[in-house]
Structure formats: C-alpha cells, structure tokens
Amino acid sequence: MRFELMPRTSVSPVARALAPVVAFIISFLIAGFVIWLMGRSPIAAFDVYVLQPLSDPWSLQELLVKATPMALIAIGLSYCFRANLWNIGAEGQYVMGAVLGGWLALNTHGTEAGFWVLPLMLTLGIIGGALYGLIPAFLKTRFGVNEILTSLMLVYVAQLALDYLVRGPWRDPKGFNFPQSVTFDPSATLPPILESGRVHYGFVFAVIAVLVTAVILGRTLFGYRLKLTGDAPRAARFAGFNSSATTMTVFAVSGGLAGLAGISEVSGQIGQLQPSISPGYGFTAITVAFLGRLNPLGILVAALVVALTFIGGESAQILLKLPLDLTQAFQGILLLCVLAADALVSYRIRLVTRGGGK
Amino acid sequence: MKADVSSSGPPLVELKGISKRYGDLLANDGIDLSIEPGEIHALLGENGAGKSTLVKILYGVIEPSAGEILWEGRPVAIGSPVEARALGLGMVFQHFSLFDEMTVAENIAVALSGEWSLATVRGRLSEISRTYGLVLDADRAVWTLSAGERQRIEIVRCLLQNPRLLILDEPTSVLTPQESEHLFVTLDKLSAEGCSILYISHKLEEVRRLCRRATILRAGRVVATIDPRASTAREIAALMVGSEVGEIRTDAPHVPQEEVLRVDHLGMPPAGLHGQALKDINLVARAGEVVGIAGVAGNGQSELFAALSGERLAERADAIAIAGRACGTAGIDARRRLAAAFVPEERLGHAAAPTHRLSENTLISHAATEVSRSGFILVSAAKRLARSIIKSFDVRTPEGDPQARKLSGGNLQKFVIGREIIRKPKLLVVDQPTWGVDAGAARLIRQALVDLAREGSAVVVVSQDLDELFEVADQMAVIHQGRLSPLKPIGEWTREAVGLEMLGVAQAQGGAHAV
Ligand SMILES: Nc1ncnc2c1ncn2[C@@H]1O[C@H](COP(=O)(O)OP(=O)(O)OP(=O)(O)O)[C@@H](O)[C@H]1O
Ligand SMILES: [Mg+2]
Question: Does this entry carry the keyword Kinase (chain A) (predicted)?
C-alpha cells in the first residue's frame, strides 16, 4: 500500500490562487498544536507571533528591515532556480558583498570623503557578491563541478574570511579587543528612508529589484531563456541559448543581489563589520524564494511573512519562554504546507492498495 | 495454447462508453472497443482523433470523464500505470519516456519497480533480444541512441513483464521498413503466444498486413470497426478523414540554382562513448531542390543534424558553408541569421518545450526576429505568429494558445515544421518530417517542403521513410555508419541500390549487416 500522485487534467485558477492561503491557515493550526503540546496557549502565541508585531509601529518597521535582505537575496536566487541552477551559497555572497563594500567604509573612515563613498560602497558590495557567485558558476561551466557543493562550501570560506578580518587586520584598535571594526562614518551609512524611522534604503532596493525582475522574467528574452533552460534544456540548446553564458549570468546576478543585501545590512543596519552579520538570511532566502514560488511579487510577500516569524519568534521567546528554534520549525512547516498545497493543486493523491511492482 | 479461445470466453478487455473531456473539447466521446485474447487490434484515426488519449486511459495515465473498463469480463478501475502493469498491460508511448543520461539497462530497471535488479535486467535483456531479435546494448547511454533504438528499449521493457495486452502507440513511425518488418514478426509471435496487441499507426499498409480488426476514430468517436484486409488503404483513409487523400503536386520542374549548403569533408568524433562518428561527409544542396538523406536509424543522422544545425560545432569553419559563408564553427543562432532553419527529430523537448504555450514556443527559433525588440518579447506578435502558423499548417489545437504538450503528436509536428517554413528560410534542414503524422497531414507537410524548394530554398530532408524520399527528393544520398554515399539525382536511384547502401554493402562489398 502506498500513495501516488496523479496529475489533474484541469487546474482551476481559483484553487491555484487560494492554495497559499489555505497552506497558511493549516501551518498555523499545526504550529498551534505544537505550542499546545508544549503547554502554552495557542491563542496567546498567535497574539504574540502575529497580531502584536502587526499592530505595533516599531515591529512593523522591524519587519521591513528584516524582510529587506531576504527579499533581495531570494529575488537573486529566483534567477538561478528558474534555470535549474542550485546556488545554495547566497550566504557567502552576502558576506563577501559586505566585506568588499565594508573595505571601502573602513578605508575612508575618519577622512573627509564625501557623498561618493556610499554609492561606491554599494557598487563594491554588488561586485563582491557577484564575483564570489561566479566562482561556482565558473567551476561548473569549465570543469563540470556540481554547483550545490561548491557554492555551499564557499559559504564557510567567506564566513571564516570575515572572521579573520574583524579579529585581525580590521579590528577596531579602540574596541576593547572586541572582534569588530570601527563604526562606519555617516558618509558610509545607508540612511533611513524616513528621518526618524529605522527602515533604510535597502528596502527601496528590494522593491526596485522586485519590479525590475518582474519585467525581466515576464517580458524579456533573457527571462524566457531562463525559463526554457529550466523547463526544456535541450530545446534551450536548440534555441541557441548558450548554457554556460546563462549559468554565469544568473550566478552573477544572484551573487550581486546577495552582495547588495550584505552591504546594505552592514551599512544601514549594523553599522560595522563583526564576525556574524546574518542570522542565516542567505539560507532562509532559499525558503523565501520557494515560498514565493519564484515569482518576484510572491517573494516580496514571502520575505515579509518569514520576517514576521523571526520577529514573532523573538517576542515569543521573551514573553512566552518559547524556544527560538520553534521559529525555524515554523518556517519549515510553512514551506512544506505551501509546497504541498501547490502539489495538491496540480496533482491528486491516490491510495494504491494492490501489490506494487508487478 | 492457441488463441482460438477468443470466440468462447469473454474478451480480454472491453471499453464501454469511454469519454474524456478537456475543457470544451471532447477528446474521446463514448468509445466502445473490445479486444480478444491473442488479437492484434488496430486503432486508427487522423491526428488529434483521440487515439493516444484512449490508450492512456486504458493504461491508467489519465482518468476518463465517463465510461468503464472490463478486464476479462470484470469491471476494473485502472488508476495508474502500476495498476495497469499489475493487470498485465504494457505500453509503448508515442513520445519516449526514457532518461537520456542513463544506460539502457538502468532505464529498464528504473521503470520496473520491485525486484528487478540491474543484473536480472541484463540477463533477461539478452534473453529477450535473442528470442525476438531485438538487439540492444545494455550499457549504452540512451542519449547516444537513435529514435529507433530508443523505441526498442520501450518495447523490450514491456516484454520483460510478460504482458497480456501490449499497447503500441505509433511504433513504426521511426522505424525503417526492415526494422518494421522485424517488429511485425515479433508481434505475430507474441500474438501466437496469446498476447493481445492494440496497435496505433498511420501506416495503413502495415495495419492491413498485421491486423484482422481495426477500430477507426474520428473526432473522438468510433466511426467504424472493420476488417482492414477487406478494404483498401485508400478506403480506410477516407473513413478516417471523411474524404480522400490526394497526391503531392510538383508542377514546377526542379531547377537547381545557386549553392546554399556545402558540407566539405566534415568529420566529427562521436558525442560520448557510443555515438556515431561522422566521417568525411560531403554534401551540396542548391536553391530550388530537395535533398534527401536516407538511412537506417542510428547511422549518424542525429549527429549529422546536430552538425548542420550548429548544436555541435565542427573543427574547421569551412567544413560547412551556408549561403557561401563558412560557418562550421558558428552556433545555431548564427546559422539562423544566415537564413537557415532546422527541425529536429524529437518534437517534444527538443523542438518544443512541452509546458510552454505555442506562442512562447515561437521564441525558440524566432528569438531574434519579429517576436522581440531589443531584448523584449513582443507578446502580441508572438501570439499572432503562433496563430498564423496554426492557420497555415492546419494545426488542430484544443484551445487558442495551448501548451505544446496538449497538442496531439501529429499536430505538434505540423506546428514545429510550420514554425520554420513560415520564416521562408533559404535553407531548411529537417529530420524525420512526418514522424507520426496522418496521411493527410503528411501530405500537407511534404507539399510544404516541396513548395518551399520550388520557391527557391534548399531543403534537406533526413528520413527513414523511403517512400517519402522518393516522393519529395530531387537528389538523394544514403548515410551508413557515419558515411554519406555520393549524392545522385533521385531518378538514378533504385530501391535496391538504396537498400544496398543502407546496409553498407555497396561501400564495403558484403561487409557489416544492419539489424
Ligand atoms: N492535456 C490536454 N489538454 C487539453 N487537450 C488535450 C490534452 N491532451 C490531448 N488533448 C487534445 O485531445 C485531442 C486528442 O489528442 P490525442 O493525443 O489523443 O490524438 P491522437 O489521435 O493520438 O493524434 P496523433 O495521431 O496526432 O498522435 C487533441 O485535440 C488534443 O489537442
Ligand atoms: Mg497520438
């Protein structure tokens, strides 16, 4: 006895649109059940996780701040994933963007350098991430090395490099031996959008990336090329789309956006370089990309949802003494539910009772 | 154990009132069909009549909207291919379902769930190969195989499970006459052993050779069940389309003009371990003529196509010249810009992306033309182009702009050929132009190829169908083991001469034998 997925012959657009909503409700129910098992009130948890962050202006800003890097990275990843290329190393590209951009901030520190620092820093961030992303792409196209392995392993290289820098050459001499750099000058700081607010311009970059990507994927030959490469690689070759060039391009784009996320976070949020500059945004962004079904607008929404789970998780830890790991578990449940809902829209489950095989 | 129980017992399988609806389209409309044990039953009908839909329902791939299936008189619900196989059904699909990167034995082992290890598969494979003469090299990677060989895998895969009903969806459309004859002997043998066969084909002569009963579909309905030997191929065809099929017109005489394609001492190593190498190929195609390339599948046709199209590059630029420009080292895109166009053998996955709409599929070969401007897709232009291809080539679609996979095999073939012809290319290279299309559509396609040549293009047709080549070609050459025979006017070829070249006898004087 086992289950089988049978393709549905017709899929209603309504079902497709409702699927994520249903998935959402179900994942809340599952999470509520788990919380109940842990001896807490699911209602109180829902309040802390969802209602409070959404009704409090400070938390709302925090939501955008947290969503920004994940949205930027996930948008980049969607280019790779659409072409069936598995860039798992966005975390490393994020770090390298922060390192290269941060290098300029540290080198102009204390000088009278003007307005040009910030744009140049952001550009260096993009370049740093892009170049780092190109390493697995090059290894893949040139030597056929699996990009999943290389991109993932390069994450640790990047993290260790950052660690070395902030403990060694880039450590703030007046920082009481803490492993961190000096605080960036105002000329190297990404300003908030509203003067009194906390949301920095990184969020604007994310929105721009969403819009530009929507146009690129939906309306340009390049976007079609990605789709074709992912859906029918042989047809893509027949179309004359060069697969090596595609690989290099999408890794550069996703690395670049991850790098931009990294430098924006460091310059707009953290304000200095330190050993850890991300709670795993680069990995969570993979979830975000699929939660948003690789659709740019969907990704923006998904980033906000996942940011909500982060913030709610923090307050739940404080207010309800719920472990922070629950947040990750919840993100996992959410992703599973969305993927399952998507699958069930296109397929139906059958129970096969007669002996398998022959 | 003879098949004479057929009249006494219940039929092996009986379909009653099977219907299948896709949106507004009734692909199957109340179909009744019964198959006796040991019977070879033909299922006929023009492209899009609903044949593949019906057999997919029988095999549990798709679910019928209405109707029931009786197996030996008992009603059964066949919910999946696994259940179908458990009942004793085997099916060879119209479009192959093989993993390119895996070997023959691996492909078979993967598809057969359960206790089949690679070693057992190997053992049984050689046994089956011997019994039925279906020769297969267990360790070859599938992507190096020709369509004919791939199909052999699918057939052997079914036979390994000792099926009681074998469904074949257009098995011979990619086979040579010799290979087909071989298959018929196999089928006769199976039938004598009591295995029933449901046989879909557009080739009426072979249906008359093989089957005693034929069910004819038109637009999803059964229009007749006949004894194909009691009627002529022409009469059957008339039943299928509701009118008679004409011959190809070639009123304008063949006036060869300037050279459009020149292949000069082209050699190419095999792609991978077991592919066929191309050896010293020389070929010229002139404007105004159709050049035919005959040969048994797997003798380098796909390699030659890849070399001509630029999907694989030659070492020397001057090995291939299109419109006088050396382009052996230029990719397919550059060659398209020299006004060349290509139609590969496999329509689903190679010529077209199955899950993309037809309008998107126009982009595959028209990317740089009227459907885009400075990198942007002109969606309405792409839709318009798809519509005009659909109209000019009589592509029957279930909806306005469907995904490619929703088209019946023959209709998709018309679309991918139309997509290239509509560009009015100076050079058209097409591999197996009428694979799996019905008589009417085959005529339409061949006519379009001939017309294109008469309007001043050079057309290269790679085909295993000798009748087709004798019908359309002005010049012909035969490919065998990667070598191309000299090109001769079609009038100078006899069938015997082609046969000898195909077997390599003319070159090697009694050398190697093909399958
Ligand atoms: N998934 C689908 N969605 C919508 N329409 C479909 C789908 N699959 C098939 N059709 C339509 O159903 C009809 C019957 O198709 P089918 O593939 O059974 O034809 P066929 O008789 O096998 O033709 P051919 O000889 O060309 O292979 C066609 O009009 C086809 O476009
Ligand atoms: Mg069919």
Answer: no
